Amino acid sequence: MPSERRIRSRTGALNIPAIADYALIGDLATAALVSRAGSLDWLCWPRFDSPACFASVLGTAENGMWTLQLEVPAQVTRRYRGDTLVLETLFETEAGAVALIDFMPIGEASVVRIAEGRRGTVYMRMAWRPRCDYGAASPLILPRHDGAVAFAGPDRLTLTAGAPLTLTEWGAEARFPLGAGARVAFTMQYDAGQAPLRDSPAPLAALAATEAAWRDWSCRSAYAGLHVAAVRRSLLTLKALTHAATGSMVAAPTTSLPEQPGGSRNWDYRYCWLRDSALAVLALLDAGQTSEALAWRDWLLRAVAGDVTELRIMYGLAGERRLAEWEAEHLSGHGGARPVRIGNGAAGQLQLDVVGEVMTAFAAMRACGLPPDTVQWDLCCRLVAQVAARWREPDEGIWEVRGGRRHFTTSKAMVWVALDRAIAIAEATGRPAPLDAWRALRGEIHDTVCREGFNVTRGAFTQSFGSPELDASVLLLPLMGFLPAGDPRIRATTGAIERELLRDGLVLRYETGSGADGLPAGEGVFLPCSFWLVDVWARQGRMGEAHALFTRLLGLANDVGLLAEEYDPATGAQLGNFPQAFTHAALVRAAFTLARTEKAGGIAPAGP
Questions:
Q1: How far apart are CA 536 and CA 381, in angstroms?
Q2: By the 8 A CB rule, do 197 and 160 touch?
């Protein structure tokens, strides 16, 4: 088998590949993770948040995997084919070389895997082991004239094979030679169990159409600064995490990839957070991609519905509100990290900041020529009224802590942001609004945050009112325009974060040992916060430091340009769900700040 980095479980036994050894393929409905060794180890169908039918990334091969590999060890390199989500993995040996081309045709609910001989002749093995319901259900496997079909309750997976199959008790396998210029394709399709069987897409035609669709989208992205390839890959990743049928965006395509090796900080990110998706919208708007913003706005109108007092901080892809959290006890976890959680209990939390991010996205849409219509403006006013009525309450905060509510500094500042953006939209469009009341409350909140959130003894804005603890989320204050980046209080806060929250030059969210989040201590550095520091440094005129940190952060991406949420400087491991929209959105926004600052001769951009 091809060599690849692997992690060890708590027992010390070799387990599944490290998080960074995966690449993403997707079809704007769901996504799959494929390892460097050619193993498809994660796939939920038919949606991002559906039960997984391949879940070995959270357990073992018994929980579902689909391998297509050489019989002998090989040197492995891989890439995406240009600005697409078509993955090409090259396996090279002395006897020959094979390219494995993996992709998901858009709108087809299928995965296509093409083995293409490049040199010599080699033997390959294919092993297809579907397991439904997060790896808990063994399907009934039956032969077909051109492959096999697997049934398990509501799900049906059909495999069309370009080589003779042997059915086994766990699935199907094939062994075949591949010479230079030859191709062997395998196509897997998902359907509801009772649906009529359908023809599989022609592999080469599907490949051409899929590449064309991704390239057509990518060529519309506007960015002219440094590191173009990294920015475009991040934009493609954000696009890949959108759900075309509803307009929603998931925070990540995975659940329970651990934020601490072997730890319990394992969460389900396959939902649409208002915060994360709004920040992704800002990044896409920076690049001139407006259709995703409009689709997300329409999704939001449907999701929030008629009563904003029922506002959730996250929803299912179609706007579902009940995301009950439970533990999949049959899964051993990635590297033994348990529990494996399905659903997310944070959905019922109060997080006052989310309206600020939403209103910032709406303000950016207006600046891009997409002003609010009457329905959208009514929603804006109702959202602002709701958060204005509750801003004095403690909440669970931007990090959705499970240790009790506090008066988090960033939460209060983001209520100011919500009011500020609503005022700006009303002033620019002439939409009716209680501007005098909004302006008065905006001023009151600003004064309160500056008085209660700035700890005079520490000389910095701290995590919550009256607390001495630092929190990197306050880097959002200058990024969202609450105070200029050059304000002495922001400079002092930045300095405090540099002294106390940097680990090997990268940024922690906060010291987890404080107990504020109600969880065991320990996690990696937080990559979005590290990109926020790049952005703040650029706005403070510290361009050399900003460029150096930005370049270093790009170097933490895996070989195909993907980033998780966290990183362990001691081991070089990526941590958390993967790939992470929050991280890639922060990367794009930092890149645009650097580019605009350079273009303006070192003068930082005004506003968010």
A1: 30
A2: no
CA distances for 201 relative to 106, 141, 147, 366, 432, angstroms: 11, 21, 14, 41, 52
Pick the closest to residue 369 from 294, 423, 427 (CA basis). 294
Angle CA 575–580–585, to nearest 5: 130
Which secondary-structure segment (H or E) carries 228?
helix 228-240
Could you tell me which CATH class the domain 6-216 is placed in? mainly beta
Question: Largest Cα–Cα distance in the chain?
Answer: 77
Domain with CATH 1.50.10.10 in the chain: 220-599
Instruction: Give long-range contacts, CB 8 A cutoff, 24+ apart: 167-172.
Output: 167/141, 167/143, 168/141, 170/129, 170/138, 171/127, 171/128, 171/129, 171/130, 171/141, 172/126, 172/127, 172/128, 172/141, 172/147, 172/148
| pLDDT tens digits for range 263-308 | 999 999 999 999 999 999 999 999 999 999 999 999 999 999 989 9
Cα-Cα-Cα-Cα torsion 542, 544, 548, 549, nearest 10 degrees, comes to 0
Q: Do 581 and 276 contact (CB within 8 A), yes or no?
A: yes
**Tens digits of per-residue pLDDT, 88-129?**
999 999 999 999 999 999 999 999 999 999 999 999 999 999
Q: What is the predicted pLDDT for the residue at 489? A: 98
pLDDT given for residue 250 in this prediction: 98
The CB density around residue 423, as the number of other CB atoms within 10 Å, is: 18
Q: Report pLDDT for 4.
A: 45
Structural contact between residues 57 and 328, judged by C-beta atoms closer than 8 angstroms? no
Q: Name the DSSP letter for residue 40.
A: E
Two tokens at 539?
Answer: 């706005």
Q: Report the Cα–Cα distance between both ends of the chain, in Å, rounded.
A: 49
DSSP 113-164: EEEEEEEEEEEEEEEEE--HHHHTBPPEEEEETTEEEEEETTEEEEEEESS-
- pLDDT at 5 > cutoff 80: no
- Mean pLDDT, rounded, of the chain: 94
pLDDT of residue 1: 35
3 falls in which pLDDT band (50, 70, 90)?
A: very low
Q: Is the dihedral of CA 251, 257, 260, 263 positive or negative?
A: positive
One CATH from 3.40.1550.10, 1.50.10.10, 3.40.50.10330, 1.10.3470.10 for 220-599: 1.50.10.10
User: Where, residue-wise, is CATH 2.70.98.10 in the chain?
Assistant: 6-216
> d(Cα 511, Cα 507) in Å, to the nearest integer?
11
Q: Which helix (H) or strand (E) holds 423?
A: helix 409-429
pLDDT tops 50 at residue 580: yes
Instruction: For residues 79 and 594, give the distance between their C-alpha atoms in angstroms, rounded to a whole number.
Output: 27
Rama region for 401: left / alpha / beta (φ>0; ψ in -120 to 50; rest):
beta
CA-to-CA distance for 588 and 566, rounded, in angstroms? 17
Mean pLDDT of 191-216: 93
SS3 190: strand
When pLDDT is cut at 50, 70 and 90, the band that residue 540 belongs to is very high
pLDDT at position 224: 87
Backbone φ and ψ of 208, nearest 5°: -60, -45
d(CA 107, CA 149): 20
Please, are residues 591 and 227 in contact by the beta-carbon 8 Å criterion? yes
